[in-house]
Structures are given as C-alpha cells and as structure tokens.
Amino acid sequence: MIWWIIKRDLLLAMRRRSDVLTTLFFFVIVVSLFPLGVGPEASILRIMASGVVWVAALLASMLSLGRMFSSDYADGTLEQMLLSPVSLSALVMGKAISHWLVTGVPLVLMAPVLGIQYDLPVEALIVLTLSLLLGTPVLSLIGAIGAALTLGLRGGGVLVSILVLPLYIPVLIFGTGAVEASTAGMGFGAHFSILGAFLLVSIVFSPWATAASLRISMG
Amino acid sequence: MIWWIIKRDLLLAMRRRSDVLTTLFFFVIVVSLFPLGVGPEASILRIMASGVVWVAALLASMLSLGRMFSSDYADGTLEQMLLSPVSLSALVMGKAISHWLVTGVPLVLMAPVLGIQYDLPVEALIVLTLSLLLGTPVLSLIGAIGAALTLGLRGGGVLVSILVLPLYIPVLIFGTGAVEASTAGMGFGAHFSILGAFLLVSIVFSPWATAASLRISMG
Amino acid sequence: MTTGPSPIEMLTARNLECIRGEHRLFSNLSFSVNPGELMFVGGPNGSGKTSLLRLLCGLSLPDDGEIYWNGTDIRKLGVDYRDVMTYLGHLGGIKDDLTAIENLRISCALAGCEIDEDQAADALGQIGLAGREMLPARVLSQGQRRRVALARLLVTRTKLWILDEPLTALDVAAVELIKGILEHNLAKGGMVIMTTHQELVMSTVTVHHLVLS
Amino acid sequence: MTTGPSPIEMLTARNLECIRGEHRLFSNLSFSVNPGELMFVGGPNGSGKTSLLRLLCGLSLPDDGEIYWNGTDIRKLGVDYRDVMTYLGHLGGIKDDLTAIENLRISCALAGCEIDEDQAADALGQIGLAGREMLPARVLSQGQRRRVALARLLVTRTKLWILDEPLTALDVAAVELIKGILEHNLAKGGMVIMTTHQELVMSTVTVHHLVLS
Amino acid sequence: MTINWFKYASPASFYFLAGRMIPYFSIAAIIFLIVGLYIAFFSAPTDFQQGEAYRIIFIHVPAAWMSMFLYVVMAFWAGIGLAFNTRLSSMVASAIAPTGAMFTFLALWTGAWWGKPMWGTWWVWDARLTSELILFFLYIGFMSLQAAIDDPRRADKAGAIIALVGVVNIPIIYFSVQWWNTLHQGASVSLIQSPKMATAMLSGMLIMALAVWMYSIVMILIRARLIILERERHTAWVSELKEGVLE
Ligand code: HEM
Ligand SMILES: Nc1ncnc2c1ncn2[C@@H]1O[C@H](COP(=O)(O)OP(=O)(O)OP(=O)(O)O)[C@@H](O)[C@H]1O
Ligand SMILES: Nc1ncnc2c1ncn2[C@@H]1O[C@H](COP(=O)(O)OP(=O)(O)OP(=O)(O)O)[C@@H](O)[C@H]1O
Ligand SMILES: [Mg+2]
Ligand SMILES: [Mg+2]
C-alpha cells in the first residue's frame, strides 16, 4: 500500500517534470546568492560553506512542505485516506518517503558540486554529503508533522515554518558540526551517530504523530 | 477600487492575526539560523550581517508570493477580477501593495533589532533599514509578475523562485552594497538612487506586466 | 464586420467553433439573445456548455466565429462589455476566511458596484441567509456558500447574466428564489444565459433552448 | 453498551446530536439501515445533511449519541468499519494532473481494492467516459470529473455506501446510470445512505426518508 | 445525563477551587518577592569579580529555570489532555504558555543585559543561548498554532502534539553547557553536588525562584479561569454565574 502512495506522489511529481528540478534550482540559487550578499573572499566562504549549504537544504525542504498534504486536502483525497482501511501511519510514511525522494535526494546529489564552488576540501565534501544523506530524511519526517498540524489554516505556509524550524535546528547543528569537525581534523563519528539517532527516532515517532495530527486537523 | 483590494487583503491577513507575525518570525528564524550553521565568531558575523538579513528578507518575501494569487485562483475570485470593469493593473497594484504591507513592512521594522544581534554599528543599522525600505516594495512588485506567471502550475511555489530570484539579485546586490559602502566609510547615496530607480521602474511596469501575465495564465 | 451600435441591446454569436484537444465541441453555432430573453444551454456532460459560456463572457477565445454585443465585437469592447455583464462560474469566488457579508461586499465591489453593510445584509437575508451573515464561509454548508455567490445577482445592475449551473447544491426553496430573481431581471429587459441539468419551468418569459451534443 | 456482533449486518444510530457553533443541527436522531435498504437524507440547505454523513462515516465525532455497525460502536471498529464502507463527499478526491484511469486506480487502491488498468478502463467505459480515460482530469468537464469519482462504486466491494450529493453536475443519462448502480448494490444486500436535492424515484427497493429541518 | 454531569462539572469545580486558591498564592508570591529582592539588593555581598552587575542573576536564573520547567509542565498537561480527552488539562496547558513565553523572554533579555558587561556583547550564538531562543520559538509556535485554529477542541489537540514534540529541546538546553564548550556559565546548583556559591547568593536565588514560581501559579490560575469561562459560556453554570446565582 505504501508503494501506491509513493508511486502516486512520484507520478504526480513527474507529470510536472519541472517540480523536481525546481526544488533543486531553489537550492542552487540560494547557495549561490550568499557569495553575492557577503562578498567573494575565499577564506570566509570556506567557513560559511557547510552552514550555507545546510541552511539552503533546510529551506528547500521546508518550502515544499506546504505541498505535502495541502493539495490532497483541497481535493478530498485526504478524507479518503482517513477512511481508508490501510493504516494512516503507513500512508503518511509513504508520503514522507516520496517527499524525501523528490526534494531530499536531489539536494544530496547536488551538494558536492556546490561545495566545490565554495572551495571545500574533498573530505569535507564527502562528510557534507553524508550528513545531508542522514539529515534530509529527518527534515521530511519532522516536516510532515508540521504540515499536518497546519493543514487548512490560512498562512499555514509560514506557520509551518515556525513550528518546524525550531525542530530542524538540532539537525542543522549536528549536520554542520560534522563538517566542521572533519575540517578541524577531529572525528565526526559522534555527530553522525547523533544524526542517525535523530533519524531512527523520527522514523519511529513521526508517522504516528503525523497521523494523529491529520486526524486532529480533519476532525 | 484599489482600496477595496488592499482593504480585503489586509482583512484576510488580520482574520488570522498570526499571518503577519509568521512572516516576521520566519525572517527572524532564518537570520538566527546562520550563526548556528556558521559559528559564533563576531568578526565573521559582522561581515555577513547585511547579506544574511537581505537574503532572509528576500526569502521571506518570496515565500509568501505563492499566496498572492493562488487562493484567488483556486476559489474563482481571479476569474471575477479578470471580468471586472475595473482595470486589472489597478487591482494588481492593490494586491502588490497589500503584499508589501503584510510582509515587507514588518521586515523593515524588525531589521534593526536583528542587526544589533550581529553587532552592527548604528550607522550601518540605519542604512540597512533604509535599504530594505526602498528594496522590499520592489521585491513585492517583481514577485507579483512571477506569481502571476506560475499561477495554476503544480510546483509553482518553487517555480516562482526560479523566475523571480534572478530579478531579485540586483536589488540584493545594491541593498547590501549600500550597507557595505557605509561600513567602509564611503557614500551610499549612489546605491540608494539605484534602488530608488528600481522602485520607480517596477511601479510603472510591474502592474502592467502582472496583469498581462494573469490574462495569459487564465487564457 | 462591426456594424455600429444597434438601437436595441443584444448578444449575438456567429459561427462559433470550439475545439478542445482532439474534440470539436461545437462549430457553426449562431444565436442571438434579446432583452427579456432567457437561453438555456443544455446537453450531456462534456458537451461544451461551460466552454461556450466562457467564450461568451470573454474568458477564452473561440477557435472560430465572433461574439457581438450591440453589434460590436466583445474583444473590442473590453471594459464596456464587462460593465454590463455578470458571470458566475462553477467556482463561487467565495473566501473561506471571510464572512458572508464581507464576501458579498467584496465580490460586488470587484464587479464595480459598491454596497454598504446594510445593503449586503439585506441581500443575504433575501436569499435565505439571515442569521448567517457573520459566519466565515468556511463553516457554511455547500448550498449556503452557493447562495452567498448568488446574492450578487440581487444587487448587481448589469443586463446580461451568464450563469454556469447556478442551481447546483441548492434546495427546492432556493431554486424557486433564484427563479424569481431571474424572472425579475428578464422583466426589466435583462438577458440570461444559463446551463442546468435540472428542469426549470419558466412560462412567462421567452425561453430559448440551445442543446449541444 | 456493545452487544456483540448481531447476525445481520446493519447500521444503527442512536440519539445522535450535532452542534455547530451556536446551532444545534439535530438532536435525538435515531435510525437504522438494514441490508437492501436505501436512506435518503433530505432537508433544506444547511440543515445538517453533510454533517450527519460525516458523523456516520467516522470523519467527525457526534456531540452526543452513538453509531453502531452490527452492534459495535464504529469508533471501536476502526479499520474493520472502514473496510466495509465507502464515502463519497462533495469533493471527489480527483487529482488534476492525473489521468482518469490513474485517478480511479489510485482512489481504489486507497480504498483497499487494487484494480489493474483494464478493469479501470472498463469501469470508466461503463460510466460513460470511454475515449476520455487518458485525459488529465484538469481538462474534464465538471460532470466528467464527478463520473471519475463515482466510477469507484462500480469496482468497490463494500456493503455500506455513504454518498453526499452524488448526482451534482450529472446529466440525465448519468443519473439513470447511477440509479442502476445503486439498485444493483441494494439488490446484493448492500446499504446506501445518500443526500440529494434532485428527485430520484426508486420503486423496487425499501426506501427510508430522513428529513432534517 | 450522568456522563454529562462529569464532563461539565470538573472545569466548573476547578473554576471555584482556583478562585479560592489565588489569594493564598498571591500573598506567598508577594512575601517571597519582598524577601528575595531584599536579599538580592541589600543583603547579598557585592561580587568581587563582577561587581554589582551580577545581581541580575536573581532574576535571570529563576526566569531561566521557570521557562524550562513551565514548558515541561505545559507539555505534560497538554499530553494528558490529548491522551485522556480531559478538557481541563488542555485549558491549563494553554494557560501556561504565555507565562512560559514571558519568562523565556525575560531570561533572554536579562541574559543579554548581563552579557554586555560580562562578555562585551549583547548576544553570542552559543548553544545555551540559542537553545533558549528555540524554546521561545516553541512557545510562540504553540501559541500561534492555537490562535490559528478556531475550534478549541482541535486547537487543544494540535497544540498538544507540537508541545510534546518540542520537549526534545529541553534536555538540549539543559545539557548544552556540557555538550558544547560555551561562553555561558555551567550549572552551579545541582542536587548531587554541594553548592559552590555564597550562601546569601544561593538563598536569595532560591527564594526568588519560589517567588517566581508562586507568581506563575497565580497567573496560570487566573488565565485558566478566563479560558474556562470563555469555553463554557454556553453551559448552565456560567449563565447562572452571570446572573449571580452562584455568587
Ligand atoms: C541571552 C543570554 C542568556 C541566556 C539565553 C541564558 C540562559 C540561561 C539558562 C537557560 C539558564 C538556566 C540553565 C541551568 O539552570 O542550568 C541560565 C542560568 C545561568 N546563567 Fe544565563 N543566559 C544568558 C546570559 C547569561 C550571562 C551573560 C551570564 C553571566 C555571565 C549568565 C549567567 C548564568 C548563571 C550564573 C546561571 C545559573 C547557572 C546555574 O547555577 O545553574 N547568563 N542562563
Ligand atoms: N485538452 C483536451 N483534450 C481533449 N478533450 C478536452 C480537452 N480539454 C477539454 N476537453 C473536453 O472538452 C469538454 C469540455 O466540456 P465542458 O466543460 O464545456 O462541458 P460541459 O458541457 O460544461 O459539461 P458538464 O455538464 O459536465 O459541466 C469535455 O468533454 C472535455 O473532456
Ligand atoms: N462554527 C459554526 N458556527 C455556526 N454555524 C455553523 C458552524 N459550522 C457549521 N455551521 C452551520 O452548520 C450547518 C452545516 O450544515 P451542513 O453542511 O451539514 O448542511 P447540509 O445539510 O449538507 O446543507 P447543503 O444542502 O447546503 O449541503 C450550516 O447551516 C452551517 O451554517
Ligand atoms: Mg460545465
Ligand atoms: Mg451538504
């Protein structure tokens, strides 16, 4: 069943091929904006790199949260999901996975290319990419809760960011922390285990919390 | 007539009081995220400050573009606007003004407070605020064109950023340029006149271009 | 082709053609509607009724043929045409977050006829929403939302009404009410073009039936 | 209060009350629907028909009273109830960007009954959409979209159908079609609860009328 | 009918109970505040390192403690409300949020005020300061979510979920000083170790903490009473109250 949801969401994304590309472009543009705003000194850019990439990934992921449930809500599909004999948590998990596939994966693949622009050393590039690989699914999973809670509320698009950003911050801190630790020549294993722990916890709790939020929002 | 539109949009914004606050909080949160990603050294932060504040303002303004026409489109109000005997450009101007009042003005007011956190000197704070005051209406006006063009396209929320960000970049460059010029002790008058020119040009052309885009999108 | 303003107001369609994808919905469609006349546009689902109405109000362009108002092509008339015409589509243009009164006042203002709070409350009362004027549209029932949209017909001063399935979701009492409103407009010399799948018997006025297939 | 599964399947509502804002829409509403029975829920706009249907399918909770399926509270049944029940609301759950076939297959899969491409095309053909199966729903007419949503009734194997104004936007032929589908389900021992503002004469089956006011 | 009685009786009886308790807690708050302020400004010795500026500690630390404590309490009651559908506990949770946000703001503000003389800057992006800021955002998020929802039942439940999810932040704030090396002071008051500071300072801080605690209780009870009145305005007992029957 979960496959149906993933298949459908990917189908919808593909129907507008621009959809996948656009999140990616957003990410690329935001990352490229900073050198414009800050100035071109390479030393400063190198320090900023991981932070900027991570913040851009976070914003790209957050930006697309609005779409996660709202169109299903507007056209009545969500009602049908709530009435489906299939477990709502499974459906929600499917939606979070396809959200990650559409928004997270392209970012992870693109990150090394952008890192090069900021003159990052190879090891830092690898660590950055891996940290995004571990971190972006957490963003989608946590984001699902926020998206479900703000469903149907006007200004939800921005309200969701208030709810979700504070929860994203720990991911951001450990994600960039890993890169900085590796640049400083220290071990980044601890950061990765914490990111991994975040991922496990959110896999376990987020579908459940999201399903509960959806039932509340639709009640 | 234009007052009716402004009144209506402000009414809609006020109906959910959180709406105005949320754009503001988004702005505050984004500005607060960067030091987390980049690290707390005050010297680096001071260099980044104007860039970060401007980029955040730009993102906050862009994020809310999605809402500018899409709800009017979904519920058929836009159809009625196209059929209205009132000039569409005037209606569009009204919508851009209320967008600015709801998203731009709070950012301008908040900017100095955030600048203090980045340890900016007083003159730089004033220049930053003034540059935002001149620049944010331009963002709303340009944004309106993008929002109109992407209307009804799935993934429009992200597509609009591709269209609009390149046009935002000159504003960003001259906005931050003004702050940097003032920090460097040079005159910032030239930057301000260019921002002013942007504003005039966009006041003249944007409503017209937006109206034309709307007619195309609805055709 | 324009023949200067004719003495009586009328809407004329000449040789309209509408193609959607592979399908030619209709072609060579000509008709005219005179003051006091009602035209029902009938036909099965997907036969092109909505498409025709959108052509007539200028929201989209015909693939062939012309539409005249008083002998002038509506594309040339622009604002002057929009001044005398009211279109109500499938979508009501009702904002969930605004109250019934606010919705009505704003949609009227958009249509170029500003009304004050009392007039709006009055119109809503007439259309059976007394006591619900201050509720946000979000909580209104389907039929009540529809009534809010239709209330505009009570205050508008336009001649030509183009209505796409105005009776959807309305109960029997409301259908009678709308019938009365239409008859009133026709009696004043207005014109109505509408689609509906429900029967609506109007004996006192001139009724045309245009059936697409 | 639960009395163990009774031998015959039936839906029973006891003392339902529904309050919205300041209004008590209904209270002390009790009824039961047995296999092969149809219940029309009637009443003017805003009388609480949609609200009642949403209670019955478990989308919202009654302010008072209980709803039993085979003698067990539907809240306790959860998935078991959703397994035997189909709800179609005002909104069709139709995605603009997907084709009619994709829409049907996905909505069926969601409802727990997976069908393949041929079955879907077949159902769409039966409901009068032959030749439009591969069109994205965006370009379908209002009635055609509605038919895509209703096509689910042809393939679902659930007993209890709860339909909110299923006839909206349908032409006369489609209304007859739907009537046939409902009669078929009832003949098999199914149950139907529906609202409609249009007349629908069903002589061969047991029909209850519940009128809210 | 019996079920109804239970459902509606508990907020009503809480309303009157709270009304009776408020004066006692107010008096306690005032007494603790006077004693605490006396110690803070007159009795406690001037710090040999920090001079007089350190006296901010008597507001800063109690406010910071309270901000975290109230969040946990709020999440607890919200969670109870979600799990057992007890409306009263959800109302209490909503009543706590503004006070919690106020103390978070106070901790941030006094901290910033203190930072200027101590660290030479209003603000640094260190882990504890940042996580306290996140706490502020969590309170704001909770309140704006509830404000954005019209239906109180839905608002309660939605708020509960975000409050519970946000609880993860509390250990992060508390342990931030240990996990990252920061500018901010580590914990000097702990249940396991004996205190490292002067007795007068410690007692002043603890008494101020009690004062702040009592104040919070008073504010929460007052706000909870208002929320109850607002939510129960259609019930018989509130209309009787209005007509003065129960006075
Ligand atoms: C905006 C800036 C600040 C924030 C957000 C902040 C936040 C906090 C928090 C959350 C606590 C309670 C944690 C605990 O009990 O372990 C705390 C305690 C404390 N803060 Fe701050 N603080 C700030 C600035 C300062 C400054 C500038 C100083 C002095 C140099 C300071 C000194 C202390 C002390 C001494 C404690 C008590 C620690 C203990 O004994 O447990 N804080 N602060
Ligand atoms: N791009 C397209 N490709 C193929 N067919 C299309 C396309 N766009 C529209 N159509 C068809 O054109 C018709 C549009 O009909 P329209 O909406 O005008 O019907 P209608 O008479 O209003 O029907 P209803 O009674 O259902 O509202 C539909 O049959 C639709 O399938
Ligand atoms: N928050 C609220 N405050 C006041 N009234 C409300 C609120 N929410 C809903 N209502 C009222 O409750 C009723 C809901 O009715 P419902 O949608 O069930 O009607 P219906 O019988 O389906 O009508 P229709 O035939 O128009 O579809 C409406 O009269 C609406 O005005
Ligand atoms: Mg149609
Ligand atoms: Mg209804």
Automatic annotation (TrEMBL), chains A, B:
* GO CC, alphabetical: plasma membrane
**What membrane topology does the annotation report for this chain?**
Multi-pass membrane protein
Localization:
Cell inner membrane
Q: Does the keyword Cell inner membrane apply?
A: yes
Transmembrane segment boundaries: 20-38, 44-65, 97-118, 124-151, 158-179, 191-214
Sorted alphabetically, the keyword list is: Cell inner membrane, Cell membrane, Cytochrome c-type biogenesis, Membrane, Transmembrane, Transmembrane helix, Transport
Q: Which domain of life is it from?
A: Bacteria
Q: Name one Pfam family in it.
A: CcmB
Q: Which GO terms describe its biological process?
A: cytochrome c biosynthetic process; cytochrome complex assembly
GO MF annotation list: heme transmembrane transporter activity
Role summary: Required for the export of heme to the periplasm for the biogenesis of c-type cytochromes.
Which family, according to UniProt? Answer: Belongs to the CcmB/CycW/HelB family.
Checking PANTHER family in the record gives: CYTOCHROME C BIOGENESIS B-RELATED, HEME EXPORTER PROTEIN B
This protein's name: Heme exporter protein B
Q: Which organism is it from?
A: Nitrosomonas europaea (strain ATCC 19718 / CIP 103999 / KCTC 2705 / NBRC 14298)
Q: Which gene encodes it?
A: ccmB
From TrEMBL, chain E:
Q: Kindly provide the name given to this protein in its UniProt entry.
A: Heme exporter protein C
> Which terms in the GO cellular component ontology are assigned?
plasma membrane
Q: Where in the cell is it found?
A: Cell inner membrane; Membrane
Annotated PANTHER family: CYTOCHROME B_B6 PROTEIN-RELATED, HEME EXPORTER PROTEIN C
Question: Known Pfam families for this protein?
Answer: Cytochrom_C_asm (PF01578)
Domain of life assignment? Bacteria
Location of the Cytochrome c assembly protein domain: 10-184
| Molecular function terms from GO | heme binding; heme transmembrane transporter activity
Q: How does it sit in the membrane?
A: Multi-pass membrane protein
Its GO biological process terms?
cytochrome complex assembly
Q: Which residues form a coiled coil?
A: none
- Organism (species): Nitrosomonas europaea (strain ATCC 19718 / CIP 103999 / KCTC 2705 / NBRC 14298)
Family assignment from sequence similarity:
Belongs to the CcmC/CycZ/HelC family.
Q: Which UniProt keywords apply?
A: Cell inner membrane, Cell membrane, Cytochrome c-type biogenesis, Membrane, Transmembrane, Transmembrane helix, Transport
Function noted in UniProt: Required for the export of heme to the periplasm for the biogenesis of c-type cytochromes.
Which stretches are transmembrane?
A: 21-44, 56-80, 92-113, 133-149, 161-180, 200-222
